[in-house]
Amino acid sequence: MANDNSNNKDHKPSGDSGRRSFLGKTALAGLAGAGAVIGLSGCKDDAPKAGKAAPASAAAHEKAPGQLDDYYHFSSGGHSGEARILGLPSGRTLRRIPVFNIDPMVGWGITNESKAIMGTRADGSLKYTTGDTHHVHGSYKDGTYDSRWLFVNDKIHSRLARIRMDTMECDKIVELPNVAGFHGVFPDKRDPVDPAINYTTRVFCGAEFHIPLPNDGRDLDDPAKWGALFSCVNAATMEVVWQCRVDGNMDLVATSYDGKLAASNQYNAENAPDLAGMMAAERDGCLFFHVERIEALVKQGKFTTIGDSKVPVVDGRKAANEDPKTAVTCYVPVGKNPHGVNASPDGKYFVCSGKLSPTATVIDLALVLKWFDGGLKEPRDTVVAEPEIGLGPLHTAFDGKGNAYTSLFLDSQIVKWNLDQAIAQFKGDKAAKPVLDKIDVHYQPGHGYSSMGETKEADGKYFNSGNKFSKDRFLPVGPLHCETEQLLDLSGAKMVLLSDHTAYPEPHDGIIVRRDRVKTTQVHTMADFPNAVSAETAGVERKGNKAHVRLMSQAPNFSMPIIKVKRGDEVTITLTNHDKVEDLTHGCAIPTYNINFIVNPQETKSVTFKADHVGAYWMYCTHFCHALHLEMRSRFLVEA
Ligand code: RUQ
Ligand code: CUA
Ligand code: CA
After folding, report:
1. Before 506, cis peptide (omega within 30)?
2. Phi and psi (nearest 5°) for 294?
3. CA–CA separation, 640 vs 628, rounded Å?
4. How far is CA 191 from the centre of its chain?
5. Using CA of residue 471, residue 22, residue 29, residue 134, what is the dihedral sign?
6. What CA–CA distance (Å, rounded) separates 297 from 16?
7. Whole-structure pTM over 0.85, yes or no?
8. Burial label, 454 (beta-carbon count in 10 A; 0-12, 13-18, 19+)
9. Angle at alpha carbon of residue 343, lines to 341 and 346, rounded to 5°
10. ∠ CA 405-409-410 to the nearest 5 degrees?
């Protein structure tokens, strides 16, 4: 094995080392009582000494200078509020996409266009400047990526953002009403009814936290009355079209390939407001939504609304859904405090991990539909396997060959297991052996995902382990550590660790997309910007105390060497980059006025600010564009 730790005294090939069993025991002891919080908080002082880990085999993953990667890796950025694009197998960072955060590199949160997408208050300032992105998923057609959109959640302010995959820029953000802790998100893969709609039209959003409904000051001391809503957003318009109130909470979200079912794992089936209460029940659940039935109820007017929101809310609570034949929800009991629900690429199963139970639960989607038709007694009868796979199982990925790969947070491992073997074992086959392999990762993996693993084209080549702790894997840089992402080769019988790469805190989830599935635009089309500045419209236009500066850039010049405005003016600068050459980006910074943004070739952006400081300010190009880049500057003069 490539990744053995040389200080593991009782090392065994599967990574069952002293350090790891220590971790496991701590965790197990924790589960029994008050120590649980500590037990789940990851590796402590038991990690190997710096530099002791053996180097992984090089070359297999490396890209020679100038060589392109085979896959795109689209990743969330956690509480950085952004999304990211890396190349795999190299692990090189290609792009950071600001979404909910302010980014002066591109001017996100600074330009008028980006502020309009992010949302502003009456005074024009941003409504929110923080975000917490966890899950990035692409839109589908025919069960695979169609390169149209990426969707990403903001857990802090319960917003859903959409990123255009041609430009890799965020173009819409919507805030979910009456939702707190919006965590899981997944686009649908086809329409549940209309077979012609074989592509994404809905995005489903799970709410992790309970709140008073509406959250207007009522029921503050009575959390038993609080509730959580599952939301459906129209992928094209980004409007919230319906919500479904549930018992318990939601966490991750998965959708079926036939479009009929969406599901969310719930770790707080107890509906408890505190940790002890959330761990009280022996089992929690995987909660299924019957999309067609929910939408039929909305059409029939069988819904309520909450507070100021006009979004129809259907009742998905157990008491209102006792008859399976009319139920919109099905609560399938699964292992304690589950985390993660993932769809197998053959379209047959959802896998839900136990987190506080060492098991993964395999749910047969055909049986869930059978339950909804009244053909099964108990929701639990939809479970076809529940193998023991290791401690702290979280997220599961697939190779398209019948195998599943689950991250084991507490064991710091990835486990490879076989679905058919697990199903046989569940039926009573004593010879069945679901677990095929385990490999150490460094350390405490959260999400793991495989190349094309969330599509019908799962190819079983690579697996990315998104580790939550890196400890000794990189040069120390102070108390804030980067995270490790580790690339595993899935192509053989045994998993092989190919490489480590760093991740700026704190990516959660990602997808690995074959590069031919992604089509980008390398140069904008000027006509796409209605406010594009041409030679005819360039110049300063004044209306009262409003000065509109229409400016062009072409290396190494701005079209106006001198821009004059008066103190007190509300200044709008609209800048169109007339360079047509790929990669020829200009920047525009103005000191004192806090202006900094870029314009890509043929792109137009604008900023608006109050000219309240008199004096001469050099407006200069920030993005290296030309041998005379430093000379690319104009005088911005504010007269008294
Ligand atoms: S979470 S480590 Cu935000 Cu997707 Cu599971
Ligand atoms: Cu234009 Cu640098
Ligand atoms: Ca629970």
Report:
1. yes
2. -60, -45
3. 32
4. 23
5. positive
6. 52
7. yes
8. buried
9. 160
10. 125
- Distance CA(253)–CA(75), nearest Å, equals 17
* CA 281 to centroid of ligand 3, rounded, Å: 5
- What 3-state class would DSSP assign to 485? strand
Buried b (16+ CB within 10 A) or exposed e, 273-292: eeeeebbebebbbbbbbbbe
**CB 164, CB 230: distance < 8 Å:** no
Dist. CA 446 → ligand 1 center (Å) = 6
Cis peptide preceding 89, ω within 30 of 0: yes
**Does the C-beta of 155 come closer than 6 Å to ligand 1?**
no
Name residues whose C-beta falls within 8 Å of residue 559's C-beta, 6 or more positions apart in sequence.
533, 538, 551, 552, 553
Ligand 2 nearest-atom number relative to CA 556? 1
84-120 pLDDT, tens digit per residue, is 999 999 999 999 999 999 999 999 999 999 999 999 9
Whole-number mean pLDDT of the chain? 92
User: Amino acid letter at 614?
Assistant: V
| Dist CA 162 CA 150 (whole Å) | 6
Provide the token pair at 202. 């809905």
Instruction: Say what the pLDDT of residue 3 is.
Output: 38
Q: What is the total residue count of the chain?
A: 640
Q: Is the CB of 468 under 6 A from ligand 1?
A: no
Three-state DSSP at 150 gives strand
451 three-class SS: strand
- CA–CA separation, 19 vs 22, rounded Å? 5
Ligand 2 centroid, distance to 158 Cα (angstroms): 38
